[in-house]
Design a protein that fits this description.
This protein has about 130 residues and is mostly beta strands. It is built from one helix and eleven strands, in the order βββββββββαββ.
Length: about 130
């Protein structure tokens, strides 16, 4: 059974940094595309960054240059390093794993996420 547990969220001032972690179990990273999505109140869920061993990484435009996704296969953990945080980054951040037949770009665009595994989310709040 695939399980994903996010951690690392919190309250930070604008310009600050946070590192989110997604501890995964029940699957092999190489067989999946893994992504970070976020949902702010009143807004649709959006793909922030996605990664697969086969196709590399993808970042949505609003976080390019500020966020970095990475994986540590020895720890079965995916990270999202978030720097230069802005109030508009405030959201619940979710980790998700889906088929690696879907490239990071398309996975972050939402393809294949309906049947994917999701974590419970971690709240990130950026104050101005």
């Amino acid at each position: 059974e695939v399980q994903l547990v996010e951690s690392g969220g919190g309250l930070v001032q604008a310009g600050g940094s946070l590192r989110l972690s997604c501890a995964a179990s029940g699957f092999t990273f190489d067989d999946y595309t893994i992504g970070w999505f976020r949902q702010a109140p009143g807004k649709e869920r959006e793909g922030v960054s996605c990664i697969s061993s086969r196709d590399g990484t993808y970042y949505t435009d609003s976080v390019k240059g500020r966020f970095t996704i990475s994986s540590d296969n020895s720890k079965n953990t995916i990270y999202l390093q978030m720097n230069s945080l802005k109030p508009e980054d405030t959201a619940v951040y979710y980790c998700t794993a889906g088929s690696n037949f879907i490239t990071p770009y398309f996975y972050c665009s939402g393809y294949g996420t309906q049947g994917a595994s999701w974590g419970q989310g971690t709240q990130v709040t950026v104050s101005s």
